[in-house]
Design a protein that fits this description.
By secondary structure, this protein is α/β, with parallel strands linked by helices. The protein has 12 helices and 5 strands.
Length: 362
């Protein structure tokens, strides 16, 4: 004889309406989170260097900064100094002025293709000024302007990723991979030590695999494979470890840490595709203190800017990992304390009942 399946009771109309509103609000929040940076992103305060004779550099600096805050100009001694600043990611480009020669505009498309386009526009403006000056000096509209302004890409993108889109997209596996790792380990592995082992295996194997795919297969990443793998490993550990720690402390609802903190909040202000200066303060700084921002900056530095100081990014990822592990330990201790308290209470209750029944058994 088969037992008929129980039909669930219909949901109350009010609850159905509330759930629909909450889902719509969540979708709206996601849209805001991922489109807000494009709405508020403004080309301003681009760090650039300028080298050359004092008189010329003063005129060019005034032209670049007069009436706007597009550029943050820093004067350097010569072209070599400008190149060093670009390779260490202290500036995004440079203008080199030489007496008797055409200006040279230095760019670094690997740092930001968007800024490279801006620097290209600067080169075109300098060329137009040279042409106008030559025309005025000769009095002839057909007068040559001399050598053209040169544009040199000091740190170009790789041939496998000429637009830089692959490098930007490489940050997505970090966020989603870290979140999935934390969620799956929370629901599928039980026990603090077992979760720690699972986390260690996941981030190491995942870091090696993702780096192998993006560097060895697709050719998007450059630089040291082991350094890239280390960055991915630590980034995955920072996100997954935080989710595991929150879940250990407050229960399975802690998995919401991933979507809320890392995906909706930190990822939009990570500046994965644009310079941090394009975002309004204080978001330009806040985004770099979270794993999505620190990891995308670190991966770009490893691939194209080995001379850049990446200490801050390593420290940020290590700190988030440490916080996650600490939360796991604290959560396990709290859970043990609660379990011990419940066992003691149950034991005292049983002893009291036995004591009350003891005269009846004599």
């Amino acid at each position: 004889m088969s037992i008929p399946a129980r039909t669930p009771q219909p949901t109350h109309w009010r609850r159905a309406v509330v759930v629909g509103i909450l889902i719509a609000a969540l979708v709206s929040l996601i849209v805001i989170a991922f489109t807000w940076p494009t709405r508020v992103s403004v080309v301003h305060e681009i760090p650039v260097a300028i080298a050359g004779p004092a008189a010329q550099t003063s005129r060019v600096e005034t032209a670049l900064t007069s009436g706007n805050d597009t550029f943050d100009v820093r004067r350097v001694d010569d072209r070599a100094a400008a190149v060093r600043l670009i390779r260490s990611r202290d500036v995004y480009g440079a203008i080199v002025l030489t007496v008797g020669s055409a200006p040279e505009v230095l760019t670094a498309s690997a740092a930001s293709p968007a800024v490279s386009q801006v620097m290209g526009a600067v080169a075109a403006k300098l060329q137009a000024q040279r042409s106008a000056a030559a025309t005025r000096a000769s009095g002839s509209t057909a007068a040559p302007a001399g050598p053209a302004v040169r544009v040199t890409d000091v740190v170009p993108l790789s041939d496998a990723d000429p637009s830089g889109g692959g490098l930007v997209a490489a940050g997505f596996p970090l966020v989603m991979g870290g979140m999935l790792g934390g969620v799956f380990l929370t629901f599928l592995v039980h026990g603090t030590r077992r979760r720690l082992v699972g986390l260690g295996v996941y981030v190491v194997v995942g870091g090696l695999a993702v780096s192998g795919i993006l560097q060895g297969w697709f050719g998007i990443l450059q630089g040291s494979y082991l350094a890239n793998a280390g960055a991915f490993t630590l980034a995955l550990a920072a996100i997954a470890g935080t989710i595991l720690g929150a879940s250990a402390l407050i229960g399975r609802i802690g998995v919401s840490t991933g979507p809320v903190l890392f995906l909706l909040f930190a990822n939009p202000v990570a500046s994965a595709g644009t310079p941090t200066s394009f975002l309004p303060a204080p978001w330009r700084s806040i985004g770099q203190w979270f794993p999505p921002g620190a990891s995308t900056r670190l991966i770009r530095d490893i691939s194209y800017f080995p001379h850049a100081d990446s200490t801050l990014q390593w420290v940020v990822l290590a700190d988030w990992t440490a916080v996650g592990l600490a939360l796991m330990v604290v959560g396990a201790a709290v859970h043990r304390g609660r379990s011990h308290g419940r066992h003691r209470h149950d034991g005292e209750h049983v002893a009291r009942v036995e004591h009350e029944l003891d005269p009846l058994t004599v």
